[in-house]
């Protein structure tokens, strides 16, 4: 789809952006007294998606054989789940956050190949989350009477201190200083103040969410689509939920964030993410107006996916050396590689494969494998194009 369509959508949506923000944002709340009990919780979204054996070898050509959809499948069932250990230093400082990771359950019910997809808070949360998930045990998935692997994605572990909510006086003062710079039009000064705040090692979930919100507005003013989309994604992960009555921003603001994220993801070529956010928005109450506003863009995305044009996603690998993307087509390739790419792992509903990366080679994924996510490993700052190839 042409770039100017997304730019037009961004301009149209942004015309009411600042009024929406002012109307829907809650005010900062002073933190309650720190509770004496500390807990760490792990919330996992269970997916019933089996995987065949991983063939860890480099393939020069697409596989010719087709993998049939599994007809007799029983998903893995949890036997033992170990909560992540809350890092002691983070507890002392009141630091909160989360880790999102994906993993595979092998034929013996063990967790294999856990990967951190994103996190916010102390880096020690990543180590704790990985250590915990590796100890999880399952009754393995069964395929045609035999144990099989099963893929899991989008598992978030939250590190939260019970009884702690709101912001400290120190945070409120520093935040308002940054916000005043932003409102005065000095975006660079606001960004510098934000970066200083993000470096604090005492931030709780409430403060995290407010900082991510400010970062999304700063990135929007700077025209940094990647940063704004990441900030909104992390904001939604930090915000809490209606179910647990711990939301920082109310549902209307969450709906706004989803609407904004759909537009940004459409512009970036992250069509699967845009469609996922749209489904979440559709499930929310009293959001018919926003759903109607964004529906034409969703139609354009669906038309692009079905078109005979290749879909190109420009990528720069981050400092962790990993990049994740959910595919919307069954063929993909790499182009314009600037730097070093090591491997690409394809995790699908019913299969998993790992390859080395060859530029201009087209990978063909059998439709029977279901929806697939690619995980690309390479040097940080490596640039390339992920091309979702049109049919034909």
Automatic annotation (TrEMBL):
Membrane topology type: Single-pass membrane protein
Source organism: Alteromonas macleodii
Places the protein is found: Cell inner membrane
PANTHER family: PROTEIN TONB, PROTEIN TONB-RELATED
Key words, A-Z: Cell inner membrane, Cell membrane, Membrane, Protein transport, Transmembrane, Transmembrane helix, Transport
SUPFAM superfamilies noted in UniProt: TolA/TonB C-terminal domain
Ranges where the TonB C-terminal domain occurs: 71-168
GO BP field: protein transport; transmembrane transport
Entry-linked Pfam families: TonB_C
Record lineage: Bacteria, Pseudomonadati, Pseudomonadota, Gammaproteobacteria, Alteromonadales
Main location: membrane
PROSITE patterns: TONB_CTD
InterPro entries: TonB-dependent_transducer, TonB/TolA_C, TonB_C
The family this protein is said to belong to: Belongs to the TonB family.
Protein name per Swiss-Prot or TrEMBL: TonB family C-terminal domain protein
